[in-house]
Write a structure and sequence with these properties.
With 329 residues, the chain is of the alpha/beta class. It has three domains: 103 residues, Arc Repressor Mutant, subunit A (Orthogonal Bundle); 108 residues, D-Maltodextrin-Binding Protein, domain 2 (3-Layer(aba) Sandwich); 93 residues, D-Maltodextrin-Binding Protein, domain 2 (3-Layer(aba) Sandwich), CATH 3.40.190.10. It has ten helices and 17 strands. Strands 6-5-7-17-8 form a five-stranded mixed sheet, covered by helices on one side. The chain has a five-stranded mixed sheet with strand order 14-10-15-9-16. A hairpin with a 2-residue loop joins strand 12 and strand 13. The two termini are 46 Å apart. The relative contact order is 0.13. Pfam families: HTH_1, LysR_substrate. GO terms for molecular function: DNA-binding transcription factor activity; sequence-specific DNA binding. This is MarR family transcriptional regulator. InterPro entries: LysR-type_TF_proteobact-type, LysR_HTH_N, LysR_subst-bd, WH-like_DNA-bd_sf, WH_DNA-bd_sf. Keywords: DNA-binding, Plasmid, Transcription, Transcription regulation.
């Protein structure tokens, strides 16, 4: 995040007291930007790399801001950095200041077409199955925007690896990023018709104790699959014939007739509709659920390309995602 040259050195009033020296009543735009990046990244060196400054310059800027405000914003130790109560208040207000500045700059470019490069990271399964066509439609709507999409199941650091948006499926958004919920992610139990024809009928979740199961570890609790029907939840211990951290691999195994799998609807809805997979105990769904989020740094949201892409994701996916609509129709 480079500082806009026209705004470097701009002085923005943050706090004033009648008895204070006037020079301590103002903070520069640069100091506020540095503070926000330090707070979001949790590291002086990481903020320095992103802002193209030296670590000593970042440290000095932060100290000058604290001196001007007369409060400690960040508690520093050799191993960690944490915001003080004043720091948390300052971060909330500072994000608003930066957003207003970026919006002002965007307003001067309204007569121009949206352009730039969008850098997105996403998990491999969702990215290949659902995100890629959504990005294609976004690029069709904004022909002067380029996209760089990296599919990786790691929870990458947006700043260190220079991403604008992470599209993630998770139960936890407490990672220091702003997060906009896009959709719930539902998981269903399914198997190939050929497998079901060769094995004992599955009428209740407990019947799966005698079947070959294809297991995604995150969808188990203490070695058990979970089943929800209205308000009732069951935990059924199962024997794993194949365990994998890749839902794509488990989908392929299910299609080949190796057993019953618990897979996300975004991945298998087409297979179910086409008859290549069949729902098992269709009146139940997995009791474990996740949500799909667009995650980003709040200070960057005012950037037109990022904001337009997140808004496009929300509109394109809709209140009920197409992969769930197809199964419920």
């Amino acid at each position: 995040m480079m500082l806009p040259s026209a705004l470097q050195g701009t002085r923005i009033r943050c706090q004033a007291g009648a008895s204070e020296n006037m020079s301590k009543s103002f903070a520069t735009f640069t100091q506020i930007t540095v503070f926000v990046r330090v707070a979001e990244l949790g590291s002086l060196s990481a903020a320095a790399r992103e802002l193209n400054l030296s670590p000593s310059a970042v440290s000095k800027s932060l100290s000058q801001l604290e001196d001007r405000l007369g409060v400690l914003l960040v508690k520093r130790t050799t191993r960690s950095m944490t915001l003080t109560d004043s720091g948390r208040i300052m971060l909330e207000r500072a994000n608003g200041i930066l957003s207003d500045v970026e919006s002002t700059l965007d307003a001067t470019r309204q007569s121009q077409r949206l352009e730039g490069t969008l850098r997105v990271t996403c998990s491999i399964a969702f990215g290949s199955k659902q995100l890629t066509p959504i990005v294609g439609r976004y690029l069709g709507a904004y022909p002067d925007v380029d996209a760089r999409v990296t599919l990786d199941d790691r929870l990458v650091n947006l700043a260190e690896e220079n991403f604008d948006v992470a599209v993630r499926i998770t139960v936890d958004t407490d990672s220091g990023y702003a997060a906009r919920k896009l959709a719930p992610i539902h998981w269903v139990y399914c198997a190939a018709p050929a497998y079901l024809a060769r094995h004992e009928a599955i009428l209740e979740p407990s019947d799966l104790m005698r079947h070959q199961c294809l297991v995604y570890p995150e969808m188990t609790m203490n070695g058990a699959w979970t089943f929800r029907r209205e308000t009732m939840v069951q935990h059924i211990g199962i024997a794993s014939r194949l365990t994998s951290n890749s839902s794509l691999a488990l989908r392929e195994a299910a299609l080949q007739g190796y057993g019953v799998a618990c897979l996300p609807t975004y991945l298998v809805s087409h297979d179910i509709l086409s008859g290549h997979l069949k729902l098992v105990v269709p009146e139940y769904r997995a009791a474990i659920s996740h949500s799909l989020y667009a995650m980003y740094y709040r200070s960057r949201y005012a950037r037109a390309v990022i904001r337009s892409f997140i808004d496009f994701l929300v509109a394109d996916i809709g209140e009920v995602p197409v992969w769930d609509r197809a199964l419920s129709s």
